[in-house]
Amino acid sequence: MALRADTATFYGLNRSDLVDIYRLMLLSRRMDDEEIKLKKQNLTYFQISGAGHEAILVAAGKALRSGYDWFYPYYRDRALMLCLGMTPLEMLYEAVAAKDDPNSGGRQMPCHWGLKRANVVSQSSPTGTQFLQAVGCAEGGRLLALIKEVKEARPFQKDEIVYVSAGDGTTSEGEFWEAINTAATAQLPVLFLITDNQYAISVPVEAQTPGGDIGRCMSGVPGLRVMRVDGTDPLESFKAVVEASHHLRAGRGPVLLHAMVIRPYGHSMSDDEVSYKPPQEREAEAKRDPVLTYPEFLVREGLATREQIEQIRKDVEAEIAEAEAAALAAQKPDPATIYDNLYSPTVDPAGTAFDTEPRFEGQPETMVTLINRCLKDEMARDERIVLFGEDVADATREQALNTVPGKGGVFKVTYGLQKQFGKRRVFNSPLAEANIVGRAIGMATRGIKPVVEIQFFDYIWPAMMQIRNELTMLRWRANGDFSCPLVVRVAIGGYLQGGSIYHSQSGESIFAHMPGLRVVFPANAVDANGLLRTSIRCDDPVLFLEHKHIYRQPYAKGPYPGPDFMIPFGKARVAREGSDVSVITWGATVNRALLAAQRLEVEGISVEVVDMRTLLPFDREAIARTVTKTARALVLHEDVLTGGFGGEIAAIIAEHHFEALDAPVRRIGAADTPVGYAPVLEEAILPQVDRITSAIRELARY
Ligand SMILES: Cc1ncc(C[n+]2csc(CCOP(=O)(O)OP(=O)(O)O)c2C)c(N)n1
Ligand SMILES: [Mg+2]
Q1: Is the CB of 270 inside a 6 Å radius of any atom of ligand 1?
Q2: What backbone phi and psi angles, to 5 degrees, belong to 49?
Q3: Residue ranges of the chain with per-residue pLDDT less than 70
Q4: pLDDT tens per residue, range 77-107
Q5: What CATH number is attached to the domain comprising 628?
Q6: pTM of the entire structure?
Q7: Candidates 57, 74, 111, 170: which one to mutate for ligand 1, based on the most atoms within 8 Å of Cβ?
Q8: Ligand 1 atom nearest residue 200's Cα
C-alpha cells in the first residue's frame, strides 16, 4: 500500500511525528510490562503503571517544551516523561533503586518523576500536593521576571507554562480547590491535566465527584478555562493540548483539561480490579486502548505500513532489553549517604558565618518591632524575598492606603512592608493554610525566597501535609536536585488570658520530629531579630515560632542590633548563670524560669537558666555544660508534657550525663489537656512560676 503524502489534516503533525507518537506510547506500555516482569522476579520493589493514559500524555509531551516549561507530573505520566527526554535506562534506574537514578538516587518509589534538566520537579506520593506547588512555581516565574539581577540569567520564560496532572480521585483533595482558586484569581499559566480513568483505586468517579464529572464541576469558576477531550485519542488530545497551550502562553489564565482515559492494568500491582470492575466494563475499556487502536489508524490512513509498525515494535523491544541489562548491573546507593541532602550541603546555619556581633542602636524595642525591622532590612537587601499570608498586607486595595494606615498582620508584625515594597512582594493569601505553604514551596523551588505567615499555630494543621511531606522532604527525595528554602513564621503559644483552646496552642515538639526542617523559637526581641535573619539567609526550610505573649512584653525588649546581626542555629543562650540547679527551657517559659530563679536566690539557691533558642538543631553541648556544672536539671516547656520535646532532652541527659547527676531529671510542661478560656483554667493548665519554683527547690534539696 502506498503511503499518503499529505498529512495536513492531522493538526500540523507530519508523518514522522504521527509515527513517533505510536513509538512513544508503545515504549511507555512496554516499559510498564517490563517493570511488572521485574517486580514479579523480585528484581524491583514496586510498580505502578501508566497503562491507558499514554495518548493524552504523549500529546502533552509533544505540545509542551522540555526544559522550558515546568512540570509537576502524576505517577501515571511515564509517557510524558519519555517525551520530555527521560530515557528507558533512567526509568529503570529508578525501578531497581540505582545510585544513578536521576529522579531520586534510589530514594523514591518508581514513577515518582523528577528530572532537573527537563524542569520536572521531584514528585511525592501524597495525591494532590503537587497542585499548589505548581501554582507557586508559576508565580515564581512571574516574580523572577521582576528581579533586575536575575533578568540576565533568565531562569524563567516569558510564555512558560506550568503543567500539573492528577487523577479523577485526587480532585477530591481540598488542595485541588485551593490551587484552582489562586490560579484563576491570579490568572496564572497553569495547565491542570486531570486524567479521568473513572476510578480511584476501587472508588468510582460518581462516588468521588458531584455528577461524576470534574470538568463540569469546575466550569463555573471565573477565569478558568475548562476543556474536555478523549484522552485515548492521541490526535484529539494533541489538538486540545495545543489549544490549551496557546491560551496559556498568551497569558489568558489557567486551563483545566479533563481527559477521559482507561486503566487496563488496575490501580497497581497490589490491586486486582477484577474484584470490583465488571467484565463488560473492562472489555469496553480494552476497545479504546490507544496502544491497540492507534497503529490500526496509522495503517488505515496510509501513514505507516504494517512492516513499519512491526519494525517499531522490534526497535522498542531492543531498546528496553539493552536498558534493562544496564539497569540490573547498576550500582545501588551507598548507605553512608543517608544524611546527604537532608539539609543544604553548602550553607550551614549553625556555622560561624552566622555568628555576628550586634551593633546596638536606639531605645529598647519590642519583639514585634525587631521582627518587623529584620523583615524590612532583609527585603531591602534581597529582592527575591516575598511575604504573604492571611492579613499580612497593609491593604490589598492599594488606593485605600491614601486614606487608611493599613493592617500589616493581626499582630502588626508585617506592618508597613507592603507600603515600602509594593503589593507584588507583600500580599494577602486566601484563607487557606495549605495554599500558603504549598505555593511558597513552588516559588522557593524557582529561587524565590518566601517568608510566609501562619496567623495562629492552632491553624497550621491544614498545611501539615505540605510541611511534613513536601517542605521537609523535597531536597532529600530529589537527592539535592531540588530544594525549597523558605521561612514559615507562626504566632504560637498561650498565657494570653482569653486565648482559649484555639489561640493558645503550643506543639513545637511535633515539628522538632521532622528531619529536613529547622525549628526556631526565640524568647526575646534581639534573639528574634538575629534568628530570623539567619532563617532567611540560610538555605533550609525554617519554622520560625513567635510567641504571642512575648510579642510586646517589656522584659523581652532590646535595642535594634543592626542589619547584619545573626545568631547561629543550635547555640543556646545562658539567660542566667547559676550553680545549684539548671533549668533548660525555651519560649515563654524562659522568663518564668527567670522569675523563679529570682525568688529562689533569696533562699540561697543558685539557678542557671538555659534558653535553647532553636530545637532543630538543638545545642547538646550547652545541655552537657550546664548539667555537668549543676548536677541537677529541670526541663521546662509550655507544650503539653507527654511526648513534649523535654522528653528528648531528659533522655539525652539520662543517656549521656547520668554520672554527672546528683538528682533525677525533672520535667514540667502543660497539663495534657487543651488550654481553657477561663483564666483560672489557663493558670492551672500552663506552667506557672509557683510550680517551677517548688520543682527547683525540691531538686536543690534532693
Ligand atoms: C493523600 C493520599 N491519600 C491516599 C493515597 C493512596 N492512593 C494512592 S493513589 C490513590 C487513588 C488515586 O486515584 P486517582 O486520582 O483517580 O488516580 P489514578 O490512580 O486513578 O490514576 C490513592 C487513594 C495517597 N497516595 N495519597
Ligand atoms: Mg482515577
Answers
A1: no
A2: -100, 160
A3: 1, 151-153
A4: 999 999 999 999 999 999 999 999 999 999 9
A5: 3.40.50.920
A6: 0.97
A7: 170
A8: 13
